[in-house]
Structure formats: structure tokens, C-alpha cells
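Subject: for your reference before the review

Hello V.,

The reviewers asked for a structural picture of the protein, and I figured it would be easier to keep everything in one thread rather than splitting it across files. Below is the amino acid sequence we used in the manuscript, unchanged from the supplementary table.
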Amino acid sequence: MTQFTFQPDPIAFAGAAAAALLVLLASHWWACGRAGRPMRLFLAVIRAAVVALLTVALLDPQWVEKLQHRQKARLAVLLDTSKSMNTQDVPGGRLGAGRDWVQQQVLGRKPVNLEVSALRFDAALAPLPSLGAASPTGAVTALVGALEQLLTAPAEDPLTGVVLVSDGIETSAKPVEAVARQFRRKGIPIHTVVTGTTNEMKDVLIENVQVKRAVPNESPTRVTLTVRSPGFAGQTAAVQIRRERDVLAGRSVVLAGGSQTVELDFTPRQRGFQIYEVSIAPLKDEWLAYNNRRQFGLEVTDPSIRVLYMEGTPQQNNSPQPEWKYLKDALQSDKDLKVTVLYRQLGNNGQYLNTVDSDPETGEKIFPVEHPTKGFPRTLAGLLEYDVVIHSDIRIASFTPDQLANLAKLVEQYGGGFLMIGGNSAFGKGGYHQTILDRIIPVAMASTEDSETRPIQLSVPATSMSHPLIAFSDDRTELRRIWGEKFPTLYGMNRVERAKPGATVLARDPDTDNVLIAVQEAGKGRSMAFTSDTTRSWGRDFETTWGEPLTGGTRATEHNCDQRYYRQFWVNTVRWLAAGKANKTNQPVILELSRGYAAPGDSVNATVKVRDEVSREITGAQVVLQVGAGLGTNGLVSARFDNATRAYVAELRVPATGSHVVTAAAWQGNTKLGDDRQLLVGETTDRETEDLQARPDFLAAISRNSGGESFKVTAPPANPATLFANVPPSLVEYRRTPLWDKAWWLGTVLGLLTLEWTLRRWRGLA
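And here is what came back from the structure prediction:
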């Protein structure tokens, strides 16, 4: 291409050319010599040519060449070759559809200066000799690792973009946001291509199991399952709870297809931390069978209520058995009530009492209250072994001030129960109105001479008939009969001033309005006052004839009565008193695991909270965790206190396939604060094929965080301007070569001038 350096105004140039032409023609017209018209015309042409050549030379003509320099660039295409890409849920399969998309949208439309490098990834990143060489055989998808490897790999040509073809099933569990942002900072967008559908495979799976952390032994327990069953809506499946080979519960469930809740009830029958399995029988054409089952751990606790019963009435000559035997047998008619009996060894005047010191039926040893090791506990820790303490006519000298203080703490701080039964060593006559126990006894005690002996007919007000201690039956008529005509005569009581504020009066003496039965909440626990007695002195009929005759149509006597109402009353009493401690939910140590299922060798985070008896956190404890049992000190893991979570944290390793009980124990010095257990299941699963739903949201997040775009193999074609936006354009160079300074150019001008001059001379022209 020819260009002129100087480009004059076209009008001026045309005017100058016309003037020059007129002058030239005039010079020939008025020439001295005369020549023929052809000669004059020829000479005019020669001169015009010379003038034209000189004019062109003055305009500086140049030959311009356009040269293009293409900048090399590289686009990386990453093909997911894990097993999930073999799924045939789109035409050609996931890998085939992704490969076709790359062939059409990338290779078929790429700029000429763009080099496309094909790579595959599953566990690691590797080059592909061609797209057709990719095969979906990888056991895992380490997508994040592949991107990290690509970012650090050396290359001659700069990387301008990434096309990531995948179904989005990532099994390495690494966070992807960080590596995507690294690509963004380097100006390398990641364009993701989703291949596969979000449809679920036909499968039945148990997603979650919910159950209480701890339940009493032989107590009905409910297990709630969250079940999904895509593709099986309307079909019936059998659900079971097992412990080892024993089927504990089962039912048939109509599957909803989507997510649904299934509830089963079963009764644990062994104490301690137990491992159970809930399962759904596999159905025909189900994708996976191993996700139809799930294990859960359950702390099966001892439901026993431990009662410390102290009886101060000695053996009576007219009694066929020890006085404490009546109440002990009544309480133990409930198999969950465990009773320890102590007797008063010394009377009010200091003499030794004639008291039987063993159970005549079982041979169980009965120790004195004052016994140094087997008597009333000398320490708070020993007293806390009991849920309820029954004080029946025990003289105050049998206790130290510390023991009385511990008894108050058992009720107020630890939720225990306390019952004081009347007698000559109880209430005001026993001097207890001057002790710390006055805080928890629900009646204001009178002076030291508060006992009286006379027949008393107990009266229960109608407002008390619904109280748990009184309500033996839902039939109010029957209940009034039990507490009216059926209730035997009492023969004495301790007089009290009144019921304390907040106390509930359940029974009174109708003649004096004296409180006979009163209950109240005391701190975290409960207390009760029974101002009459349950032994021979004041309660001889009460403990022997409150029931129904064994022989119909006869009168109830000590040897002809089933004592059913007597037993029921005391069982109700102890269970009500024990509610605060027996149902205590604020465990001192609570262990939580970040997940209950993990592959062997995986890490699982453990969080342990430690609290005292009033739910205050303890930050200075020593917390130790152990996975399984019998591992010795090598299997112990110490937890550290984390200020951010206000809990003790540790990292545990799943040792092997199978069920492992993780135990967390907290200590403060040499004192054990408590422990807790959770189930950890080591299970090797095929994460690639466990859930084959494509993850478009996951891939879209990668594109968004890296500055790229997200595409689908089933969507309209991609815009090339988006895919190749970072490809650098070619550099253009213009090379200019002057034409007027060539030898042939000057020779032509001189030749024409010489020719013109020679012809003039030859023809004799001026």
C-alpha cells in the first residue's frame, strides 16, 4: 500500500496542476520553431510526465506494510474424571456432554492466538493428550486441590482463564472460596460448566436420628427419624430398631418420596451407655443400601430413687416386726425405690434402745444413725448418694452441725427431698426449730412441748384432692372414700404454729386446724412435714389397716389388710420429693461431637462444657477424652479451654471402622466432676456415588468468587466474548519505505528530460 507524507488541499492541487498545464501548452504554442501537431503533442506529454513525477516526488510517496504480531495466551480446560461423571442423566453422560460442550464452545470458537490445554482431575490434576482420552474412573473429586495445583504450575504462556467442567460433587471437603479468590486476584476467571441434573437417584436414606441423651432403664423411649425416599413415594417399608441381633421395635411406613418424620417407641432394658441401630429394609432398584441404617448412642440410666430412711421408734413388744419394716416394705413395693434404713440406737435419756438391727426377711444389716462409717453420711458427697431423706423421730444429738447443714444443701442446692415425720424427737420438741433445717421444713414449729396424744381424724380439703400425693384415683368419689371413711384414726401429733408462706397444706386436724401434712418447694428441692407418726405410738392403725381387707366382707385388721393405700401414699410421697434430683437435667459435663459419622483417620472436633451444681461454667477443670476403651494412656486426649466458645475443645481421630464410644471426663484436682459419652461411628463410604445430584450452586460460587461465568451443558451456547475476554489482541506494526529516492525514479525523470531536449534540438525547436 502506497501513502503520501504530504497531502495538499485537493482544490489548490487541482488549480496548480491546471495552471502548469496551460503554461506548458502555451510554451509549445508560441514556440519559435514550428513543428507538427503530433510532435508538439508528444513533447507536451513528456513535459507533463516530468512535472507529474516531480510533483509526486515532492509529496514524499512511501510504501506502507502492515505487520501483525500475535501474543500467545493459554486457556486451561479441566475435566472432572471422577466416578460420578459416569452418570447417564444427560445425553451422552455427564463426561460426554461436558466434552462435547468444550469441543463446540471452546475449541471451535477460540481465537487463533489462544492455546487450549486439556487437563483431567479426580484425586489429582494431570494433562490429557486429547479430550477423548478422559475416562470417569476416579474414586474422589479433589476439585480444590486441582485448582491449587493449576495455579502454582509453571507454564511458558500466561494463563488467561479456566474452564472447569464438573457435576460439582466435591469429596475433599476443602473450602473453595479461598482458592477462587486467589484466581480473582491474579485476574484469571474460572468459568464453570455444570453437567448433570439435580434429580435424586431412587433411594431410601435415613438422614437424622433424634433421641434423648439419657433415659431411665425400662422407660418407654421415642426415636424420631428424618427419612428421604426419592422415587419411592407410596411404597411401604419396614423400619426397625435393633440392639445387636435383637429387634426391639418395628413398624411399617408408607414412604412420602420427599422428607418425612418417622417415630418409633421402644423400651431399653439394660443400663449404661448402649448402642442401637435403626434401619429400613432395602427396596428393589434402590441406589444405595448402606444409608438405610444409622446407629445412635443412648445413656440408659438407673431410674432408682435412693431413699435414706431413719427411724427412731424402737422395737415394740406388741409388734410382729420392727417398726421401720412397715414403711420400708411400703416404699420397696415400687421396684425403683431403693431404701437404706438406719435406726436410732440411743433414746432421749441416753439409754440403748431395743432395736432389731437386721431385716428378718432378707438379713440386710441395719446400722445405727450414729455409726461412724455406715450411719448418716459424714460428708456432703456421701449424702448426695441419696435422693430423699426421711427423718422419723431422730434426736438432734445424733447429728453434727455440718451434717444438718449438708442436709439443707441436699434440698436447696442439689434438688433432693426431705421428709420429717412427727414424734417426741421431731419438730419443735426435737429442737429442730433452732437448727438450719427450719429453713426447709414447711411448717413454723412451736415450742419444745408440742406433742399431744389423742385420737385424730385426718381431713383433706377438696382443693388438695388433685395433688400428686393425694390423687390415688381419677374417681373423686372413690378418692374421698379413701381419704375419708377408709383412712384410719391417728393417735397423736406435733402441734405447729402454721404452714409457712409458699407451703401447701394437704391435710389438717379438723378439731384444732393443726397442720398434719404440708409440702413446699425449697430451693431446687422439695420438703414435707407429716406431723403425726407412722409407727405404733401414733400410727398403729395407719401403717397396718389403711387398705382393703384380704377377705371380702370382713373388717380390715393388721393381718387382714393389703395396705394398698398406705403403700401408694408413701410411694407417691417419695416420688414427689425426689422429682428435683431424679429429673435433674443440668449435667455437670456435656460432650458434643461435630459429626457422628466419619471415615477412619478423619478428624472430628469435640466440644465439652463443664458446669457446677448451679450451672456456672468451670474454666479451670482438667478435661480428658478417650475414644473407645482399653487404649491406655496413649488413647487419651486432653482438651483445652477455648475462650471464644466458652468450652473445652479437642480434635479426635477416628481409629478404625466400627462403633466407638467417646468418653469425656472432667476433674478438678482429685475430685471428679462428672463424665459424658457420645457415639462415634467409623464408616468408609463411597462419597462419590453417595449422592449423585449435580451441585450447580457450588460451581456458581466458584465462578462468582473468581470473576468468571457459570454455564450449563444443556443451556444456550456461551458468548465467546465472555469466554475469551482475557485473551490479549494481536500487536499491529506499520513498516514505511520511501519511493521517491529510488535510482530508477531519478533515472526516469532524467531520461524524459533528455529525450525532450534531444527532440527539440533535433527538430530545431527552441
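For the response letter, the relevant points are probably these. The CA atoms of residues 207 and 226 lie 5 Å apart. The longest strand covers residues 671-682.

Happy to draft the paragraph if you're swamped.

O.
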